[in-house]
Amino acid sequence: MSISKVLLTIPATVALCLALYFVGTLLVLSLPSLVTGKLFLYSKTLPSLYGSIIISVIAVLIAFVFSVSLVVLVNEFVPRWLGETLSLLIDTLAAFPTVIFGIWGLLVFAPYFQKYVEVPLYLYLGFLPPFSYMPTQPQSALLTGVVLGLMVTPYAAAIIREAYRVLPVELRETVLALGGGKWELVKICLSGIKDAIIGGLTLSFGKAIGETAAVALLIGGRAWFCPLTAPCEAIPSLIVSEIELAMIKPELRSIISGLALLLFVVGAIVLAVAKTLVKRWYI
């Protein structure tokens, strides 16, 4: 084996060993709670899993609307220089520390969101279970999901934008030659990259479900099967709030490790699905 192959193989081997060590130690730490079933008997496990999934689904829906709209706007309805500027700004948002989104969401966005969105939802749609809770504090599952959606939009938009740009020029020329308008062209282009859209949104789901800093600030920290307008709990924020106590209680330490393993498994499955869909589109 040549020296270059050795130099390339060593880092990959080390990375693989570290990944296996990470998962293995997490599994060992969580094994007592998994064997005894205490992980799922713990009162906060299922509500926090429910909260993580709910806010991630809301985030994906928000990301879908904004990312697809931005991609269509940048590629079809604005001058090229403006489209490139907007793309740069969107990509820059992906580099922002997530705690900034959390602070902005809590101090700036939350009061307006509560007054103009959550309260009207409660007043007019309060007979529906998702909106049956009168919002009495800024934090809520709905607020968390919306801010997370804004936060993960750049990730989805980047994948969808690149897929949109590499569509064959012949497709555009054919649609226009047959008398199709701009919106017909957009519909055909989006249908042609549907796997890339699904892959980008699934990747955003994986990013949202593992987010900690912003979620801890916005979700409210109440572990129950909450309506959307109520404070809730998610696995990452629960781990942060319980980790200090878990350091001195072995039983709780095993449960917290089990929650982390559960989050890892869910995130790994989601990211594997996203990778498969994106790879399928490019192939």
The beta-strand count equals 0
Number of helices: 12
Strand content: under 5%
N-end to C-end Cα span:
31 Å
CATH homology group: MetI-like
**How would you spell out the order of helices and strands?**
HHHHHHHHHHHH
Which structural class matches the secondary elements? Answer: mainly alpha
Give the CATH level 1 class.
Answer: Mainly Alpha
Q: How would you describe this protein?
A:
By secondary structure, the chain is an all-alpha fold. It has a single domain (3-282), classed as MetI-like (MetI-like fold). The protein is built from 12 helices and no strands.
Short description:
With 283 residues, this protein is mainly α.
Q: Top keywords for this entry?
A:
283 residues, mainly alpha, MetI-like fold, 12 helices, globular
Element layout with pairings:
Blueprint lengths: L2 H34 L1 H4 L3 H33 L2 H14 L4 H28 L15 H25 L3 H9 L4 H11 L1 H16 L3 H6 L16 H12 L3 H33 L1
